[in-house]
Amino acid sequence: MHIVDPVCGKHINRNKAHMVVTYEGNEYYLCCPLCQATFEREPEKFLRRVRGERKVRIRR
Fold first, then answer.
1. Which long-range contacts (CB under 8 A, 24 or more apart) does 40-49 make?
2. Helix pair angle (43-51, 33-41), 10° resolution
3. What is the pLDDT of residue 55?
4. How does 31-45 read in b/e, with b if 16+ C-beta sit within 10 Å?
5. Based on the number of CB atoms within 10 Å of its own CB, is 7 exposed (0-12), middle (13-18) or buried (19 or more)?
6. CA 39 to CA 48: how far, in whole Å?
7. Chain segment 1-49, per-residue pLDDT in tens
8. pTM above threshold 0.70
9. How far apart are CA 29 and CA 20, in angstroms?
10. Rg (the chain; Cα; Å)
11. Which residue in 10, 33, 45, 47 has the fewest CB atoms around it within 10 Å?
């Protein structure tokens, strides 16, 4: 089964992922050490993308 790396968007085989990171009870599969480090530094940034959320700018 193929899944998507939340950092780079690459489709990867679940069994061949570089790393599986558990965050808030969910598993995220990452393709390489760079994506792992990037995800671990700012997980919420990438989880917004996974959830389909977007940044909202409030104009005053």
1. 46/6, 46/7, 47/6, 47/23, 49/6
2. 100
3. 53
4. bbeebbebbeeebee
5. buried
6. 12
7. 789 999 999 999 999 999 999 999 999 999 999 999 999 999 998 887 6
8. yes
9. 5
10. 13
11. 33
